[in-house]
């Protein structure tokens, strides 16, 4: 996403030692970070570490003007987002009551930016009615929350109160900074390659990693959509707030997609679905020792259902309002093949990519795609990280949705 200005306000909980990792995650995503701390927070994390990682002065004193660099109003005005992490019980209480007796609470009260808090404390402090009331009040005023999670706590107790991981807080920051343009929409994304069984241990599959589809699912969820991710074989972690349904074969993927289709507004078919499957899957492993020396085996392949064609036909036969996006992964003759595919299937547009490239397509973090539109227009994008390609795809999906309302 675009570079945004994030103030990380650190308070005096043990989890403050994880905040340098949050600064790293946000700066590597391209954001500009400034850190402010309470005096207690400096017991747990050094301002010098935060200063070095954020490349901006990190202040902890409301009255130390430090040559004007850490002015609480200037910092509050500068921010697009203020994230309080970890947020202690004490600071949550002060935030609720508008107390501003340190740099963190002064910035928090003065800012007009969005506020996100990542509470972290002992389970009994978290479940105390005072904390519950403070959290409920902040929530009702539109303050966003991430965590806390349940688990083993630094104080030795077990239960809810552990700060969310820096990666989850970074994701919550991205969400907070993203326009909720897909709220109320159900987006179904298929991702990864299917795996067509030959016997109990072997299968016919392809090199799709699922990264493109997972990036689309993650971005759609960030934009507020309810996302159903139908995933073939992949080792990728499920993006936050996404409902994932794992499948193995094209037949299973077909069944799940057709079942979920009536409840969706958008379908993005990123998965590399096998066109053919072995006619017969042996229930047990085919053993070499059961064959004559040098004897081969013949595998008959039969066609799989065409999921994209079936989706388009169903949409055309029912409301006709769903937006359907197809992918064409080709090794040669990419654009003409994608244009033929679009004409055959009748989806809204096709995202074509050349999977013979080593710097784009299957199993890498970047992709170079071309949008192929009905009527023959094409729109070529440069080589981009897959999360940016996901954003470009969803911008066009939103435009199509807008045209249908
Ligand atoms: C070792 C240690 C760990 C602490 N961890 C937490 C914590 O995780 N969460 C919390 O709310 N308070 C924790 N506290 C208590 C806070 O540091 C204390 O309430 C302090 O006044 C918070 O100040 P602040 O909110 O201005 O940073 C801890 C205290 C100590 C001594």
Short description:
This protein is α/β, with parallel strands linked by helices and 405 residues long. It has helices at 19-28, 47-54, 72-78, 89-97, 103-110, 123-126, 129-140, 166-176, 211-222, 250-260, 307-317, 334-345, 386-403; strands spanning 5-10, 32-37, 81-87, 114-119, 144-145, 149-152, 158-162, 186-191, 196-197, 203-204, 226-231, 242-246, 266-269, 276-278, 301-303, 323-330, 349-354, 366-367, 369-372, 378-380, 384-385.
Would you spell out the secondary-structure blueprint of this structure?
Elements: E1 5-10, H1 19-28, E2 32-37, H2 47-54, H3 72-78, E3 81-87, H4 89-97, H5 103-110, E4 114-119, H6 123-126, H7 129-140, E5 144-145, E6 149-152, E7 158-162, H8 166-176, E8 186-191, E9 196-197, E10 203-204, H9 211-222, E11 226-231, E12 242-246, H10 250-260, E13 266-269, E14 276-278, E15 301-303, H11 307-317, E16 323-330, H12 334-345, E17 349-354, E18 366-367, E19 369-372, E20 378-380, E21 384-385, H13 386-403
Parallel strand pairs: 1-2, 1-3, 3-4, 4-5, 8-11, 8-13, 11-12, 13-16, 16-17
Antiparallel strand pairs: 6-7, 9-10, 14-15, 17-19, 18-21, 19-20
The structure holds flavin mononucleotide.
Flavin mononucleotide (FMN) is lined by residues 11-15, 38, 40-41, 88-91, 102, 120-121, 125.
């Amino acid at each position: 996403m675009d570079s945004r200005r994030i103030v990380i306000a650190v308070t005096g909980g043990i989890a403050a030692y994880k905040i340098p990792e949050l600064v790293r995650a946000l700066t590597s995503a391209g954001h500009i970070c400034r850190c402010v701390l309470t005096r207690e927070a400096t017991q747990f994390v050094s301002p010098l570490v935060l200063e070095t990682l954020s490349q901006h002065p990190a202040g902890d004193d409301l009255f130390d003007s430090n040559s004007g660099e850490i002015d609480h109003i200037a910092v509050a005005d500068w921010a697009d987002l203020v994230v309080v992490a970890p947020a202690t019980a004490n600071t949550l209480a002060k935030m609720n009551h508008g107390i501003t007796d340190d740099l963190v609470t002064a910035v928090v009260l003065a800012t007009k930016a969005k506020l996100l808090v990542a509470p972290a404390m002992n389970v009994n402090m978290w479940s105390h009615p005072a904390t519950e009331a403070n959290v409920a009040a902040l929530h009702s005023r539109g303050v966003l929350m991430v965590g806390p999670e349940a688990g083993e706590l630094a104080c030795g107790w077990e239960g809810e109160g552990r700060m969310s991981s820096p990666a989850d807080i970074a994701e919550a920051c991205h969400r907070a900074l993203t326009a909720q343009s897909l709220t109320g929409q159900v987006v179904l994304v298929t991702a990864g390659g299917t795996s067509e069984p030959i016997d109990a241990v072997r299968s016919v599959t392809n090199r799709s990693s699922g990264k493109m589809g997972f990036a689309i699912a993650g971005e759609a969820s960030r934009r507020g959509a309810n996302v159903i991710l139908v995933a073939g074989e992949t080792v990728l972690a499920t993006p936050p707030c996404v409902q994932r349904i794992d499948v193995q074969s094209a037949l299973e993927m077909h069944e799940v997609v057709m079942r979920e289709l009536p409840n969706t507004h958008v379908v993005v078919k990123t998965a590399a679905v096998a066109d053919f499957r072995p006619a017969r899957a042996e229930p047990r492993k085919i053993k070499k020792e059961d064959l004559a020396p040098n004897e081969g085996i013949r595998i008959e392949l039969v066609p799989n259902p065409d999921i994209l064609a079936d989706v388009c036909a169903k949409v055309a036969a029912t409301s006709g309002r769903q937006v359907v996006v197809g992918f064409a992964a080709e090794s040669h003759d990419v654009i003409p093949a994608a244009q033929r595919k679009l004409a055959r299937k009748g989806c809204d547009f096709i995202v074509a990519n050349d999977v013979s490239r080593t710097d784009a397509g299957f199993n890498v973090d970047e992709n170079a795609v071309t949008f192929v539109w009905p009527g023959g227009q094409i729109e070529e994008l440069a080589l981009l990280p897959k999360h940016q390609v996901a954003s470009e795809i969803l911008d066009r999906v939103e435009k199509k949705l807008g045209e249908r309302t």
